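Posting here for the record, re: zinc ion.
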Amino acid sequence: MTDTRTEQKTPQTLTAIRQQIAHAKQGAFYQEHFAGIDPAAIDSFDAFEQLPFSDKGDLRAAYPLGLQCVPEEKVVRIHSSSGTTGTPVIIPYTQKDIDDWALMFARCYETAEITNRDRIQITPGYGLWTAGIGFQLGCERLGAMAVPMGPGNTEKQLQMMMDLHSTVITATSSYALLLAEEIAKRGIRDKIHLKKGVIGSERWGEKMRRRIAEELGVELYDIYGLTEIYGPGIGMSCKYECGMHMWTDYLYYEIIDPKTLKAAEPGAIGEIVITTLQKEGAPLIRYRTHDLTRALEGDCPCGLHFPRIDTILGRSDDMVKVKGAIIYPGRVDEILSGIAGVSSEYQVMIDHLNGRDILRLFFETPIADADRIKEIESTVRAAFKQQLNILPETHAVALGELPRSEKKSTRIFDNRY
Ligand code: ZN
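Prediction output follows.
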């Protein structure tokens, strides 16, 4: 018998999709976006895949509350995605949306075998952003003790971590790395009681993972999510470290080729597109996340019957083409992770100078010897030449010289346009 959750394309899911489309059309945004589309006509997944995508730009145009699909009295809260690059997107939540999110998030913690005996130090920001408040919601639902620090103030962060014996740290990968480096620098590792780290869904490489795990002495888990679809907590890795289980009782996802916008080949890297199945406040149909990943096949030894996607490999907007080669952060991580003397942090700058594209790669190294650094730089150039057919300019810098961020960090800068 097929497990209804591992296999996404079930009659039940199609029914849920149809109902969600009908509900979405109660709001101003989908009334217009899906004008002329009859939910009853979506009688197959093929028909569903003909529907137009929803993209962040469309959602911005619905600012402030054009996405709202329920009467005012049912809305209990809003969240908003960061508006640093334009109009923000506002997502209204009903009490059911909050309860569903809490349930999914508690399930994430349980997947990492975190229990109500744990003390969870929450470092992502609180407020309009969904991160901090989501980690807190799941923690309270699980019955664990939340230590709601929010970002920054490393001094106090470490003090509370020591005094309260926090057992779980939740953070972005770059902030976890900053804390790990600070703990090592201060020599306070024996006063830290962390066992697990739950790291937000930005793309991070194997080297960075190893450094954080070793320096903090923790098991690391990836959590997935985005403000437009509840927030973090819609997918989670388990101890077998084979991608993230996705909570397909609340959402349906597709992996598309970001160039052709058609379904990606099974197992191929593409962009994850999400449809909510039970959202009341602001349902989204075929929402383009721009996160790059791939579908993983087969059963997971942990026994969870939720399908898996790979850890996030980058953003489709970060996917750049230089001299015919496709470059995204996950690919750069992969190349650098095999080279001794190269640390986890790097930046790629792409410029157009004197009629040609130049790729400059800055990476951190713990090595101080100038000759040895020259050798490492030349190894890096050779690896890029061999694997991407691009010869970058390489610039090794000392550990800690590249920027760390409490939010998601950008690593590839395309300055050509
Ligand atoms: Zn698993």
